[in-house]
Structures are given as C-alpha cells and as structure tokens.
Amino acid sequence: MCQEVHFYLIWEAVLTPLVIEFKKAVLRLEEAVNYKKDDFLRDSVIQRFKFCVELAWKSSKKIMGTVSSAPKDVIREMAQSGYIQDVDKWLHAVDMRNLSSHTYKEDLAEEVYAFACNFLGELKNLVSRLEKK
To answer: 117 with 36: CB under 8 angstroms?
Structure first.
C-alpha cells in the first residue's frame, strides 16, 4: 500500500502542474476574448488559442498515458476516454491551430479568431474534466 501512495503522489506531482498550466492558458484566452476586438487583440487571441490547443492535447496525453505523439490520435483517444464530446470540433481545432501560422492573411486571421472565440467553451469543459481525474 505504501508503494501505491508513493506512486500516486509522484503521479499527482506530474499531472497537477500540467492541468494548472492548461487552466491558466484557458483563463488568459477567456480574458482576451472578453476585450474589445482590434487587430492587436485578435492576434493575441489567436496566439493564446494556439497555446490552449497544444496544452489541451499534451496534458490529456500525459494523463491518459497515451503513447502517440500525433495530436489527432490523442484527440480521438480523449473522446474514447470521455474527456471530450465533439471529436470533429477538436480535430478542426488542431487544423485551425496549424493554419494560425498563416494569419498574416487577414481573412484567415479572422477565421481563426472567430473559431477560437467559439471554441472557448470546449476548452473550459476539458479543464473541468481534467481537474476531476
């Protein structure tokens, strides 16, 4: 039993910081989304969205013990494990994150910004589920 407790404490020490960092990133995104939009803010939201998507799948990967390093594979496993509901929306989030490196194109920047604002609820739901695990 002592080994189990020790393992649990080590596990908690690794996972808790990941979830905390993910939660902070989501809160920062939410903060940015709530400001009046201008070009500077739009770019900030896009950058924060990128951080959130990365932390979402990487934190989940660590918690689930997934061996794959491919974001879309991890997302599918997140759905199978009950962490997320809408797999297609999350897969689209990865695509939008990938497109965000091309946001020098005005129309694309607007598209990623709009998606990021609408995706905030999914990120907040994941934070809640990860905190319960």
So the answer is: no
Q: What is the pLDDT of residues 75-94, one digit of tens each?
A: 999 999 999 999 999 999 99
Q: Round to whole Å and give the CA distance between 5 and 27.
A: 32
User: Is this prediction's pTM over 0.85?
Assistant: yes
The reported pLDDT for the residue numbered 13 is: 52
The pLDDT value recorded for residue 18 is 85
Token pair for 113: 């910004």
Instruction: In the chain, count H helices and then E strands.
Output: 5, 0
Alpha-carbon distance values, 3 to 9, 11, 58, 60, 114 (Å): 10, 12, 27, 25, 48
pLDDT band at 12 (very low <50, low <70, confident <90, very high): low
Please write down the HEC assignment for all residues of 54-94: HHHHHHHHHHHCCCCCCHHHHHHHHHHCCCCCCHHHHHHHH
Q: Could you give all domains of the chain from N- to C-terminal order, each with its CATH number?
A: 2-132 (1.20.120.330)
Angle between helix 39-64 and 87-99 (nearest 10): 130
